[in-house]
Amino acid sequence: MKTLAGQLILALALVLAGEAVRRASHVEAGLADAEAALATLDPAAADEQYQRVEGELTLASQVPFLGEQLISDVRQERAMVSYWRGDYSAVPSAESDLAPASITPDLVFIAGNAAYRAVKGKHTGQEGAQDLDPVLRIYTMLLKKSPGHLDGAYNYEYIVRLRNVLSRQRAGDAQKGNPASND
Q1: At a CB cut-off of 8 Å and minimum separation 6, what does 180 contact?
Q2: CA 176 to each of CA 105, 125, 170, 173: distance values in angstroms, whole numbers, following the listed order
Q3: Residue 106 C-beta-side C-alpha neighbours within 13 Å
């Protein structure tokens, strides 16, 4: 490295490494701020911080093996924050969004819970049973990704039973709030 070109290359490499470390520390600070906002029960501020971090990670998402996981983790945290805020429409629920292998079972679980909360109590009878079909598909996807997911299996079983009860309700019984009898 006695030549000027060698020294310039070394200097450029050090500047790039320094910039990478600076950005990483900025992302870590944003994640810490988001976690602090969650701990102090301020989900709106947490969601704002996660959104900023996700924006800062656009360049990092191009790094193989590392970037995809970072983006996935931040998206999962944002989905959790949206769920706890009651903003169920902000949680990814399309099967095409949840199907990729990079999507974690925990995110699919959150999506299933949000999908259930979004349709809970809207309709009774056959309409209510049909409302639960997308929820069942999400929980089925979860159990395919993670067959041992106990909470997902419980929720799947609950939704199946609830769907069966709702599908047996008659119009008159639905207005009274009573499930139809099997007479």
Answers
A1: 168, 169, 170, 173
A2: 38, 12, 10, 5
A3: 9
Q: How far apart are CA 170 and CA 174, in angstroms?
A: 6
SS3 call for 153: helix
Number of other residues whose CB lies within 10 A of the CB of residue 21: 10
Pull the structure tokens for residue 140.
């089925």
Give the C-alpha separation, 99 to 138, whole Å.
Answer: 9
Q: Is the dihedral of CA 100, 104, 107, 111 positive or negative?
A: positive
Q: What angle do CA 99, 104, 106 make, to 5 degrees?
A: 115
Please state, in angstroms and rounded to a whole number, the distance separating the CA atoms of residues 45 and 81.
10
Give the DSSP per-residue string, 71-104.
HHHHHHHHHHHHHHHT-GGGS---HHHH-STTS-
Q: How high does pLDDT run on average in the chain?
A: 83
First to last CA, the chain: 90
Task: Supply angle C-alpha 140, 143, 145, rounded to 5.
Answer: 110
Chain segment 58-80, per-residue pLDDT in tens: 766 666 666 677 777 888 888 88
Residues 80, 47: Cα–Cα separation, whole Å? 9
The arithmetic mean of pLDDT across residues 23-47, rounded, is 81
